[in-house]
Every structure is written in structure tokens, then in C-alpha cells.
């Protein structure tokens, strides 16, 4: 076929695709009205997870799984916003990695509202200024984001989804300058930790100044210029018109951050779920072993365990555990019931579809 004929065939297919997408959105509108009648929330992470999994299984290529997910995430986001426009709080400003994670999870149709701290993201959802919040919780290099974990102790918000975001750190400056001219570097504490060895080898004399986010660091450098640089991502460089003077400076490849979606309710079962609980053990020898034993007895796989100090009590700690399964699953529900009797305090932070 000639080029013009191929393009004509694509134009015809595009018209059919557009017609089908609009048909899908009309059905989504009907579903939205039914959800309102039944008092259900618009976001259903379990259902969206099942839809994407089914499409991945049906896909015969050449469309890649990543491209498939991007396309259908946007279609589902458009459907969700037709049902009810959502406001999403995120650790800002724009072009922060949390912003990118929120866009990746909710799509570009949602209203994104930047917050200056993780605590403000929690508060925006608690006060119902936003429907959902996106916060970082752990990094593949540096581990837990402790401030996020601490806020769960006093909050009644639920985890209703998780999202994994690839992280790429660059050194950004207002102009192309030699590394030897950089006197101060701005970034988030996690970014500094993830680039510790590179900074030691390449900028040993630079002052490291912490910011609330990597995007905030980029914004500061854009405003003051001079001998300053920021550790942030390529999206921040583009937004704030900065130059990348060193690429991919994280100490280890495959740098990934796990983010959590916060809401007033968690997600219904999807068949491939994860549950998070927070608990305090008695001050007795072997107490943690005793609390965790029911998981083994019921054959439940724990995938993460973190401990944090209780701020208003000396030498007292709470734990957060993630394990596979949904709180409504019979085995999980029974395990939680047994475990709760052993703990001084326990609450379910949420059940949600496993990402990836």
C-alpha cells in the first residue's frame, strides 16, 4: 500500500476508536449515576486493576504493556471525571515525583492541588478539601519515608491504592556551569540520601540544603540562580527552565519509590490485594513474635514490617505490617481478629490492589 492509503486507513481506524471511546464514556456516565444511587465512591481501584489486568492478558502486541496501561489509565480517568470531578492533593509543587505519581495513577483529567508537606496532604483529605491524597511511603534504595508512617498513627485515613514510580535524579542548574562552580545544592532529604556517594565524589565541598520536595528545590534554583544547583527530575528541569548538568546521579540503578493513595475508604477486593495494619505490642518478652504468629498459622505472607517510635511515649514503638490478601478474605479477617486480641492497639490502615 502507498503512504497515502496507509494514512487513510489509520484515519478510518481513528474515527472508529473515537466512536468506541465515547460509547465507553456514556456507559461510564450510567455507572456513575448508579454509584450515586447506591452511595458508592467514584474511584474503584480494585475494578480498575482488574480491567488493566484483563487487557494485558488480551493484548497480542505490538502495543507494549506500559503503553497499554498509559492509554487505558487516561481513558478510565476521563470516565471517572465525567462521573465526578476529583481533587487530588500531592506533595508539591508541580513536577515533584509525587506529582508525577499522582498523574500516573489518576490521569491528567483530575484536578491536582499541590501541598507543601506530607502532613498537609493528610489534612487536605481529612478536611475534605480533596477527595484523595498521594504520598511517598518508601524508596527502593533508602527505605521508609518515616514522616508518612508517623502520620498514620494519628490519622483515620485509609490506604485505597498504591503506585510505584521510577525515580531519575539529575543535577540541575540555571545555566551550563562546571561542577566545581556549584556552591550549594538544594533537594529533598530522600534525594540527598539516594545520591550520597555521587555527591561525596563530585561535590564534596558543596552545602546541602534540604527542601520539602525535589520540585521545590528546582524552583529555588530557578529563582536565585548563581552558584546553586538542585537534585530533581527531568520534568522539573523542563518546568523551571533549568539545565541538566549531570544525568542520572543516583547511587544505584532501578531507583523506585512506592506511593500510597489516601482516602476516607479503602478498596473492595480485586483478587490480588494487599493489606496494611498498624499495631502496638505489649511490653513483654517475645511480644512481637506472639503478634506475628497468627500470620504464619493462617498461611498469610507478610511482605513488609516497619517500626517507629511513639512520639509522646518514651521507648514505646508502633509497627506497620503489609501482607498479601484483603481484610474481607476469610483467612485474613480471622487472622486480624486473633491478632487484635494480642495487641495493645491495632487498626487496619486499608486493603487495596497490589500495584504492578
The radius of gyration computed from the alpha-carbon positions, rounded to a whole number of angstroms, is 23 Å
What is the helix/strand order? Answer: HHHEHEHEEHEEEHHEHEHEEEHEEHE
Please report the first level of CATH classification, the CATH class of the domain at 266-353.
Alpha Beta
* Shape, per Cα inertia axes: globular
User: What is the oligomeric state here?
Assistant: single chain
Please, what is the average pLDDT? Answer: 89
Q: Low-confidence runs (pLDDT<50, min 5 residues)?
A: none
Number of strands: 15
Give a quick account of the main beta sheet: strands, pairing sense, barrel closure. 6 strands, mixed
Short characterization:
By secondary structure, this protein is of the alpha/beta class. Helices cover 42% and strands 26% of the residues.
Report on the structure:
The protein is of the alpha/beta class. Among the domains are: 170-254, Periplasmic binding protein-like II (D-Maltodextrin-Binding Protein, domain 2, 3-Layer(aba) Sandwich); 266-353, Alpha-Beta Plaits, CATH 3.30.70.260. 42% of the residues lie in helices and 26% in strands. The protein has twelve helices and 15 strands. The strands form three sheets. Strands 1, 2, 3, 4, 5 and 11 form a six-stranded mixed β-sheet that branches. It has a five-stranded mixed β-sheet with strand order 8-7-9-6-10. Strand 1, helix 4 (97-106) and strand 2 (111-115) form a beta-alpha-beta unit. The radius of gyration is 23 Å and the shape is globular. It starts with a helix and ends with a strand. The model has no long low-confidence stretch (mean pLDDT 89).
Amino acid at each position: 500500500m502507498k503512504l497515502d492509503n496507509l494514512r487513510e486507513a489509520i484515519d478510518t481506524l481513528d474515527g472508529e476508536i473515537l466512536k468506541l471511546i465515547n460509547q465507553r464514556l456514556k456507559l461510564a456516565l450510567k455507572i456513575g449515576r448508579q454509584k450515586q444511587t447506591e452511595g458508592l465512591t467514584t474511584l474503584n481501584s480494585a475494578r480498575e486493576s482488574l480491567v488493566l489486568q484483563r487487557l494485558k492478558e488480551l493484548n497480542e502486541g505490538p502495543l507494549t504493556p506500559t503503553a497499554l496501561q498509559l492509554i487505558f489509565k487516561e481513558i478510565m480517568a476521563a470516565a471517572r471525571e465525567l462521573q465526578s470531578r476529583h481533587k487530588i492533593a500531592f506533595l508539591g509543587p508541580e513536577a515533584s515525583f509525587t506529582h508525577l505519581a499522582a498523574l500516573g495513577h489518576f490521569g491528567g483529567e483530575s484536578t491536582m492541588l499541590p501541598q507543601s508537606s506530607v502532613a498537609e496532604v493528610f489534612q487536605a483529605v481529612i478536611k475534605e478539601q480533596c477527595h484523595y491524597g498521594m504520598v511517598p511511603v518508601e524508596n527502593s534504595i533508602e527505605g521508609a519515608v518515616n514522616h508518612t508512617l508517623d502520620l498514620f498513627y494519628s490519622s483515620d485515613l485509609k490506604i485505597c491504592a498504591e503506585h510505584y514510580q521510577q525515580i531519575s535524579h539529575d543535577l540541575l542548574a540555571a545555566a551550563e556551569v562546571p561542577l566545581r562552580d556549584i556552591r550549594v545544592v538544594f533537594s529533598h532529604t530522600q534525594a540527598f540520601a539516594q545520591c550520597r556517594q555521587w555527591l561525596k565524589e563530585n561535590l564534596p565541598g558543596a552545602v546541602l540544603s534540604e527542601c520539602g520536595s525535589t520540585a521545590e528545590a528546582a524552583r529555588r534554583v530557578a529563582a536565585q540562580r548563581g552558584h546553586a544547583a538542585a537534585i530533581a527530575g527531568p520534568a522539573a528541569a523542563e518546568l523551571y527552565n533549568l539545565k541538566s548538568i549531570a544525568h542520572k546521579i543516583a547511587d544505584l540503578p532501578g531507583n523506585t519509590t512506592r506511593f500510597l493513595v489516601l482516602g476516607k475508604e479503602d478498596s473492595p477486593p480485586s483478587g490480588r490485594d494487599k493489606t496494611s495494619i498498624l499495631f502496638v505490642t505489649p511490653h513483654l518478652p517475645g511480644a512481637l513474635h506472639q503478634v506475628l504468629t497468627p500470620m504464619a498459622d493462617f498461611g498469610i505472607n507478610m511482605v513488609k514490617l516497619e517500626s517507629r517510635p511513639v512520639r509522646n511515649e518514651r521507648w514505646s514503638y508502633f509497627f506497620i505490617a503489609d501482607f498479601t490478601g484483603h481484610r474481607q478474605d476469610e483467612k485474613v479477617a480471622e487472622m486480624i481478629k486473633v491478632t487484635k486480641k494480642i495487641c495493645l492497639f491495632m487498626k487496619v490502615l486499608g486493603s487495596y490492589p497490589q500495584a504492578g
